[in-house]
Specification:
The chain is α/β, with parallel strands linked by helices. The chain contains 14 helices and 16 strands. The longest helix has 24 residues, at 2-25. It is globular and about 65 Å long.
């Protein structure tokens, strides 16, 4: 019996080492947040979630801004309040994964924008501590792009771009813009359309539009939780984003959980802006069209809608649709589904990380580590069998794991029409570590070549159950 306990403890320690090495092996994303925190509870909710993923990012700015919902004040004090709570649990988080910033590091990058609305804060003499910090972050000699996630109005970003364009050569401006990756939660002031029009080469993810026109109803990001309010869609499991679930799994867990306010409209409308940047094996930040926890977006110039502030003049990364089988057993095709299809996974992941703030390593669950027994890119021909392997997959806690292989047609360029079951490609042994499928030969659109995205989802049997992924891209040739 004593030997059994010793072996178990060794397994736990080895699991911790595996987790730590996996976390350190992937490059962190540089992150800069603009938030109209305190306009309603959801920004504070998103800030709490960001704190339990803080070890996955180099957080270089947390800037309090205005928006259409909060035109003449900012609330950096609320960011600091949440960071203080994070500081109380950081030592506990360090047991579970490495790389957590200190409270002092996070407090050092808190700033504010001007307490004015939209384009009133852009132009000569409109610099702010927030816009100056943003310019300094972009100018830092770092080859990684800087992701600017905009939870409110983007006029701090607009001012930074305005100043750079007014003070630098066209070549320097182009270099500055090329280092930015922007994801905005719709248009929460009038500076977003100005940015897109004036900087046509800027990487920009958005469901464009303004709240008074009903834009949030149509926006991809509302798929995070907006079933009953914004979005009003069916198919998703609303119980996972409702206040009772949040009470049990988030708010009840220590000093950081206590900072998570009750939902008034919808849970965490701003979270999709960084959810797709989390290292989970599915997300590929530079390819929004490949889909992930933050949704799926395609690059095109959208047509003018009544909720847009102005017509779009350039391609942007914007709304795309996935076809997903909902909890009601029916198939749903919508842009909201590109997010809610992953809801059980991202909510369980959040709940587990909140456990990390108060529990020891052996008392908490940790995500499995999927492995592929072949390269992530394969080549095949129509009618050819493709063998898939997840041999070598492990779980750091020694839990049993379940496998699910599925075809994700929307990101690929190989087009085959759906079968009666709703799935155009049947994967045999889809719930086993070894699976296979045959590249379709019938009902295939010309030219009959292109890419197929096959997703491996590995879910452990811990509490809560956690999922990680591998993406296999099959190049179908003639």
């Amino acid at each position: 019996m004593r030997m059994h306990r010793v072996c178990l403890w060794v397994m736990v320690c080895l699991g911790a080492v595996v987790c730590a090495r996996a976390a350190e092996s992937e490059e962190k994303v540089r992150l800069f947040v603009l938030t109209d925190i305190e306009n309603e509870p959801d920004d504070a909710q998103s800030m709490v979630r960001l704190m339990v993923y803080a070890n996955q990012f180099d957080i270089e700015g947390l800037v309090a801004t205005t928006s259409v919902h909060q035109r003449n004040r900012t609330a950096a004090w609320r960011i600091r309040e949440i960071i203080e709570a994070y500081g109380q649990v950081r030592d506990n988080l360090m047991q579970h994964e490495p790389g957590w910033p200190t409270k002092e590091q996070l407090l050092s990058v808190v700033r504010e924008g001007l307490p004015v609305y939209g384009m009133e804060g852009v132009g000569e003499g409109k610099d702010s501590p927030g816009s100056e910090l943003l310019i300094a972050a972009v100018d830092r000699p770092d080859p990684r792009p800087l992701w600017v996630t905009v939870w409110g109005g983007p006029n701090v970003l607009a001012q930074a771009l305005w100043k750079v364009r007014a003070t630098r050569s066209p070549e320097e401006v182009a270099r500055f813009v090329s280092k930015l990756r922007v994801y905005t939660i719709s248009d929460q002031d009038d500076s977003g359309p100005w940015i897109r029009r004036n900087f046509p080469d800027l990487f920009y993810i958005v469901s464009p539009g303004f709240h008074p026109g009903g834009a949030y109803h149509y926006a991809t990001w509302s798929g995070i939780s907006g079933d009953k309010f914004n979005g009003r869609f069916t198919g998703a499991d609303f119980s996972l984003v409702d206040n009772p679930w949040l009470d049990r799994n988030i708010r009840s867990k220590g000093p950081l959980g206590a900072q998570y306010p009750r939902t008034e409209y919808l849970m965490e409308g701003d979270t999709p802006s960084f959810l797709g940047l989390i290292r989970n094996g599915l997300n590929v930040p530079e390819r929004p069209d490949w889909g992930g926890w933050g949704g799926r977006y395609e690059l095109y110039t959208p047509r003018k809608q009544k909720w847009h502030l102005e017509a779009e003049t350039r391609p942007i990364w914007t709304d795309a649709m996935d076809e997903v089988k909902g909890v009601d057993g029916n198939w749903h095709t919508s842009n909201h589904a590109t997010i809610w299809r992953w809801r059980a996974a991202y909510q369980n992941d959040f709940a587990a990380r909140m456990d990390w703030t108060i529990r020891s390593y052996k008392e908490a669950n940790h995500p499995p580590v999927p492995r592929l027994g072949h390269p992530e890119r394969l080549v095949a021909h129509r009618g050819e069998r493709v063998d898939l392997s997840a041999e070598g997959t492990t779980d750091p806690d020694g839990d049993a794991v379940s496998y699910e292989w599925f075809y994700y047609p929307e990101p690929g360029t190989f087009t085959v029409s759906s079968a009666v079951s709703g799935q155009p490609v049947e994967i045999r042994n889809f719930d086993q570590p070894r699976a296979w499928f045959v590249v379709p030969t019938r009902r295939v659109m010309p030219p009959g070549t292109g890419t197929m995205h096959i997703i491996l989802a590995v879910t452990d049997h811990g509490v809560p159950r956690l999922t990680r992924y591998k993406r296999v891209i099959v190049e179908v040739q003639e």
